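wait is this the right file?? whatever heres the structure
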């Protein structure tokens, strides 16, 4: 890319403002500037996008397609500038024109097309694929409404619709000519052809047009631009004369038109509880049918190979079970349109698909009612039924020892279609997202499938893109690192390990200290502006940011805060390092318990933050509307990273990796990727506490835990629970009683009380360590040094070599 200077960019911005928006710089708002700059960046991206596509065609490279119902990409202007190598120049040009880059970037609305970990992982993976020159693309849905915007009103979560497309979105290109038709409902008729093969015709189907919008995925300073293709649902409007009557009919039924547009209307905001809603099933089939049609069309256009050799050029990763209908959809097209026989189609299909599992929580497992699937997708249902028949027969005849397990293995059982089973049977690879998670899949959750197909199972520990989460979010830290070890780590993040050599260098540790403090000041400012609360930037910033979920145990965290508050009230002069507890979390709108916890955190905050007795030693901050952009502000300022899920329940976690990379110390359980962080940094650079996964699973199986015993014997616990029960925190007596009951009457299913004491003790250790500044800074730098292991570049290399068998081009 030609080197662009700040002066050159200024000229272009000035011209762009006049041409596109008809205004001068002096009249331009931050938003005008945001658009002008975005279109200039687009001009830089477009030629490389074209070139990348062309080169994939010429080189006939094998492509990976990542199918996901969620891509949580956040804002793109700053990351595109970074990856194009224009970020510094752009900041300079903006400043010289009298604009703050931060405010200009903030004009972009987050593309919140995901719930949490799974969607953000997909976004990090796309960044790594492009940055490593891999031919890999995403397919998803262009939801008109992303994840709801959260407001906190009187301590309660209130959800507002996120109409992120209200203003024009500069990063997308509509590709109407590549639209495809998706069919729902209708009747399937079967005919015998002359050669004896079967032909299927559909009658009276409801047709929906899937129109792609492409978003460029820019590689880091390498001129690669891959594609994220998002499908939008529209009515099919025929252009020919015969169909006009049909169209007219159509306009008489605007409800129908509306129901079509609903398919890409909004992102389901629940990542905690599976709900068998037909609209969600429609969304899933809409995504997979349009994507598979498109993939096959491209394959046929780009290669002279027969479709029976598809797997030489195409591999498809399905992100959780949500897109697993892609498997029968591929079978349908191969058989009904490409005329392959069942065996050949099955051979092709099972060589193309790979499946990633992201949770073992039974509440999240997808199973669809058989009649719903049969009614909405009759032909797809027939195919699933046949896959199931053949699979069950093969167990019956080949695995006598598993015969009585057939009801637990069958894809269709007890009137429901089990999507994880379909995904395992139809894929050549099944992976978990951290070592412990994969082990639990193999030994417990998917044990029988593992015994049937041991060769399919493999682990791919998650990763995060260090470009967004370090270079972009924390440029000051990135600069210090480069000053110390040179810039090679940017292309090879594992080289961060060279920082270890300097982890005892006092002068250097001081530099790291200064950066952290500046980041904390910036966050303190943000907090002040958004909540009106002043926090002490010398206090420990203790951070828990993630979706609100019982298993993630925000409740344990706030119980600890209540305990500290109670202690301080009794003894206001006790020696305590000031603490700021920072929370960010959205609860699924229908998740009552989660919303109660949000209310509790906010209620505790409203008491603690204004209590003069405790002399400002404790502050509790709940930042509303936690999303990717807010994460970018919080993470660089974190001292302690709270990763305190009930062991065995957090598949991996990725926030843990982001905070580690920004020098926070993990305080957590032996769960998910925390275990791998612990392996790397060792006991002395992490604070581990609580039950292990084996212990948790043992209690679930054998009993032996009684929450009430702890309530009766630990005064600190009793005090807190009684405060909840007696309405000490609430405006009404009944407020928070449910939390009390949930713990004592459901025997504390997430072991909050059981882990409470070790949690307190570990916090005390952490506080002591924090007071010893040099030791703490050494721990912090050690964590940064080892964090290169969790760059998604590493993860993507492993997917590419072990599963996808694709090459860098
Ligand atoms: C689940 C469901 C279930 C009901 C229907 C809608 C819906 C939508 C999303 C999900 C996602 C749950 C799975 C998930 O996000 N898992 C998280 O994946 C992260 C990336 O692998 C991982 O780091 C987290 O530990 C894991 O909880």
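ok assuming it is, sequence goes like this
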């Amino acid at each position: 890319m030609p080197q662009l200077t700040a002066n050159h960019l200024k000229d272009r911005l000035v011209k762009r403002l006049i041409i596109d928006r008809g205004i001068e710089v002096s009249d331009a708002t931050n938003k005008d500037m945001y658009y002008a700059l975005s279109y200039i960046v687009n001009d830089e991206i477009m030629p490389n996008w074209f070139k990348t596509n062309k080169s994939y065609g010429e080189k006939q490279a094998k492509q990976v397609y990542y199918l996901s119902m969620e891509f949580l990409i956040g804002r793109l202007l700053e990351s595109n500038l970074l990856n194009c190598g224009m970020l510094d120049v752009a900041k300079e040009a903006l400043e010289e024109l009298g604009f703050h880059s931060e405010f200009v970037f903030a004009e972009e609305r987050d593309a919140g097309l995901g719930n949490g970990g799974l969607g953000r992982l997909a976004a990090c993976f796309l960044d790594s694929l492009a940055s490593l020159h891999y031919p890999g693309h995403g397919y998803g849905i262009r939801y008109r409404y992303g994840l709801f915007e959260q407001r906190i009103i009187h301590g309660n979560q209130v959800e507002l619709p996120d109409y992120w497309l209200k203003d024009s979105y500069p990063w997308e290109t509509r590709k109407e000519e590549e639209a495809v038709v998706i069919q729902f409902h209708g009747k399937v008729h079967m005919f015998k052809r002359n050669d004896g093969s079967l032909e299927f015709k559909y009658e009276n189907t409801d047709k929906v047009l899937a129109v792609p919008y492409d978003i460029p995925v820019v590689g880091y300073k390498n001129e690669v631009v891959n594609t994220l293709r998002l499908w939008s649902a529209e009515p099919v409007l025929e252009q020919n004369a015969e169909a006009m009557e049909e169209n007219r009919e159509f306009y008489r039924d605007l409800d129908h038109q509306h129901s079509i547009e609903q398919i890409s209307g909004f992102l389901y905001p629940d990542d905690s509880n599976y709900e068998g809603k037909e609209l969600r099933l429609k969304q899933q089939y809409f995504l997979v049918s349009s994507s598979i049609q498109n993939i096959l069309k491209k394959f046929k256009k780009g290669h002279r190979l027969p479709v029976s050799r598809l797997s030489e050029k195409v591999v498809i990763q399905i992100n959780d079970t949500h897109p697993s209908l892609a498997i029968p959809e591929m079978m349908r097209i191969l058989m009904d349109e490409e005329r392959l026989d069942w065996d050949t189609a099955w051979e092709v299909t099972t060589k193309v698909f790979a499946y990633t599992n992201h949770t073992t929580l039974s509440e999240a497992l997808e199973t669809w009612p058989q009649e719903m699937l049969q009614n909405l997708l009759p032909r797809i249902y027939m195919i699933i039924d046949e896959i199931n028949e053949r699979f069950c027969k093969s167990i019956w005849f080949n695995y006598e020892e598993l015969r009585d397990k057939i009801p637990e293995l069958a894809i269709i059982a007890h009137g429901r279609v089990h999507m994880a089973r379909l995904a395992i049977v139809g894929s050549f690879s099944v992976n978990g997202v951290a070592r412990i998670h994969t082990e639990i899949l193999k030994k417990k959750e998917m044990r029988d499938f593992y015994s049937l197909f041991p060769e399919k199972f493999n682990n791919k520990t998650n990763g995060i893109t260090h470009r967004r989460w370090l270079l972009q979010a924390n440029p000051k830290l990135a600069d210090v690192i480069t000053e110390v070890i040179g810039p090679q780590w940017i292309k090879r993040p594992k080289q961060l390990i060279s920082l270890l050599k300097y982890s005892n260098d006092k002068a250097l540790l001081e530099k790291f200290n200064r950066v952290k403090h500046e980041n904390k000041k910036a966050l303190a400012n943000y907090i002040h502006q958004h909540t009106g609360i002043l926090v002490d930037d010398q206090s420990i910033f203790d951070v828990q940011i993630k979706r609100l979920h019982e298993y993630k145990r925000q409740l344990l965290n706030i119980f600890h805060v209540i305990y500290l508050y109670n202690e301080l009230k009794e003894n206001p002069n006790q020696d305590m390092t000031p603490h700021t507890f920072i929370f960010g979390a959205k609860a699924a709108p229908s998740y009552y318990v989660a919303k109660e916890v949000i209310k509790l955190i906010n209620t505790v905050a409203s008491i603690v933050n204004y209590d003069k007795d405790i002399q400002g030693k404790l502050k509790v901050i709940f930042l509303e509307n936690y999303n990717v952009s807010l994460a970018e502000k919080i993470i660089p300022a974190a001292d302690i990273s709270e990763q305190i899920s009930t062991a065995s329940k957090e598949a991996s976690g990725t926030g843990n990796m982001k905070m580690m990379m920004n020098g926070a110390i993990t305080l957590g359980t032996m769960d998910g990727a925390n275990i791998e962080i612990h392996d790397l940094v060792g006991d002395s650079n992490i604070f581990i506490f609580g039950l292990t996964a084996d212990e948790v699973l043992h209690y679930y199986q054998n009993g032996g835990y009684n929450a009430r015993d702890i309530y009766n014997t630990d005064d600190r616990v009793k005090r807190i629970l009684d405060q909840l029960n007696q309405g000490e925190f609430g405006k009404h007596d009944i407020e928070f009683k449910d939390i009390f009951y949930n713990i004592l009457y459901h025997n504390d299913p997430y072991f909050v009380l059981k882990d409470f004491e070790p949690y307190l003790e570990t916090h005390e250790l952490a506080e002591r360590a924090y007071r010893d500044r040099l030791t703490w800074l050494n721990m912090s730098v050690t964590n940064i040094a080892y964090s290169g292991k969790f760059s998604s570049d590493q993860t993507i290399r492993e997917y590419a070599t072990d599963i996808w068998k694709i090459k860098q081009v």
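The two ends are 18 Å apart (CA to CA). so i think its the right one actually
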